Amino acid sequence: MSGYPTLRPQSLASKVIDLPKGAYGVPDAMMNGLMAGRASAGLQTAHPLQASEEQWNDHQMKLDLVMLKNSQGIHAPLKLQMERFAVSQMQRLPCLHSSNILMDTLTGADERIRFEDILNNPADSEVMGQPHAMMERRLGFL
Predict the structure, then answer these.
(1) Which of 33, 80, 95, 108 could form a disulfide with 131 if both were Cys (CB 3.0 to 4.6 A apart)?
(2) Is 98 helix (H, G, I), strand (E, B) or coil?
(3) What is the per-residue pLDDT for 63?
(4) Residues 6+ apart with CB under 8 A from 85
(5) What is the pLDDT of residues 109-133, one digit of tens each?
(6) Cβ-Cβ contacts under 8 Å for 31 (sequence gap 6 or more)
């Protein structure tokens, strides 16, 4: 086996979620909610493809990194992951819109047109927040 992930992404709905137990060994409904635990285990996604579509980008990236590792060695995927991590750490002030063009270039998202690219673009927003309050919230002063 060459180490490739499965071609079919696993559904998130089939995973069992373990809740922390309360003081008496039962899940605490006041802290975790009434639908937590066994009641939510029976819930399904709205459509069978929903879980697959939510995981598609991560799954495709894993496949690409394994293929790159098998063809060029371990250094190539490590370098790409290091570049993505460094780019994800760069931020603008919270009141300024960022296009994240470098991350889009590294992930290949600059070549795709998605729903978010046309409708509900944050750069077209007419509302501007208070820069000082937004920065204080980011730094944890508020």
Answers:
(1) 95
(2) coil
(3) 92
(4) none
(5) 889 888 877 887 766 776 677 888 8
(6) 22
- Any idea what DSSP says for residue 119? S
pLDDT band at 108 (very low <50, low <70, confident <90, very high): confident
Rounded Cα distance between 79 and 137, Å, is 33
Query: DSSP code of 21?
Result: B
pLDDT at position 12, please?
57
Q: How far is CA 92 from the centre of its chain?
A: 20
Taking residue 77's Cβ as centre, other Cβ atoms within 10 Å add up to 19
User: What mean pLDDT is predicted for residues 54-64?
Assistant: 88
d(CA 91, CA 21): 38
Whether residue 90 has pLDDT greater than 70: yes
Which percentage of the chain shows pLDDT scores above 90? 20
Give the whole-angstrom CA distance, residue 137 versus residue 95.
Answer: 11
> CA–CA separation, 44 vs 95, rounded Å?
38
The residue assigned the tokens 């373990």 is 18
Where helices occur in 25-74 by DSSP H, the ranges are 29-32, 38-41, 50-72
